[in-house]
Write a structure and sequence with these properties.
The chain is built from 6 helices and 6 strands, in the order αααββαβαβαββ. It is α+β, with helices and mostly antiparallel strands. It has one domain: Aminopeptidase (3-Layer(aba) Sandwich). It has a 6-stranded mixed sheet with strand order 1-2-3-4-6-5, with helices on both faces. Strand 3, helix 5 and strand 4 form a beta-alpha-beta unit.
């Protein structure tokens, strides 16, 4: 997939960082920043820039307000070899960005989540990996609007999709979009629970 202009990508990365800086996953992987929230925000901007690049390379990215206020990043039905190559490229960059301890946290959390997914047979499902709206733009319907094109594409493909969230308050929002809770899991690295939510194919 083609990428967005650099300015849009930078704006989207900043918006995602502002939106998700309090999330237990992102706090765990930016452990190298300690209590320096400015450093954490900068590290997350770089993190999300890499995630956006991976999405444009081998998935799907939708921008809220041309990236000014947020984005949604999907893993899609792109051929597995392309997805694996894009992920490996991002993983190499994250190893440097996050530092030894942060990358160890990243790897362990991903492994824990993949283990929890194993019993759900989601190998053919699309994955909403990242979604966020800048805090000062929330409450205006941008969350639903940035997800709408991806959900339409999921339905057109006749696929199921899923997401994971540490934010219990987001469950009703995703429920209105057709997702249902499929499990609640304790995650050891963050010390927090997260929810797995599934949305069945419209063709099912």
């Amino acid at each position: 997939m083609s990428s967005a202009p650099h300015t849009q990508a930078s704006q989207a990365a900043r918006s995602l960082a502002a939106a998700l800086i309090g999330d237990p996953f992102y706090r765990a992987v930016t452990v190298a920043c300690g209590d320096d929230e400015a450093a954490r925000l900068a590290m997350l901007e770089a993190y999300f820039a890499l995630a956006l690049a991976e999405g444009w390379q081998a998935g799907r990215v939708d921008l809220a307000d041309d990236g000014c206020n947020g984005a949604a990043i999907w893993t899609t039905d792109t051929p597995a070899a392309e997805r694996q190559a894009a992920y490996a490229q991002r993983e190499d960059a994250l190893r440097v960005l996050l530092g030894e301890r942060g990358f160890a946290h990243f790897s362990a959390i991903v492994e824990n989540m993949e283990h929890a997914l194993a019993s759900h047979d989601l190998s053919a499902a699309w994955y909403l990996s990242i979604a966020g709206i800048a805090p000062d733009a929330q409450g205006r319907g941008l969350g639903a609007s940035v997800l709408a094109p991806g959900l339409a594409a999921v339905d057109a493909a006749g696929a199921a999709c899923f997401l994971e969230t540490y934010n219990e308050r987001s469950l009703p929002f995703y429920g209105r979009l057709g997702f249902v809770v499929a499990g609640r899991y304790a995650e050891a690295v963050t010390g927090c629970d997260y929810w797995l939510m599934l949305r069945q194919s419209s063709a099912a």
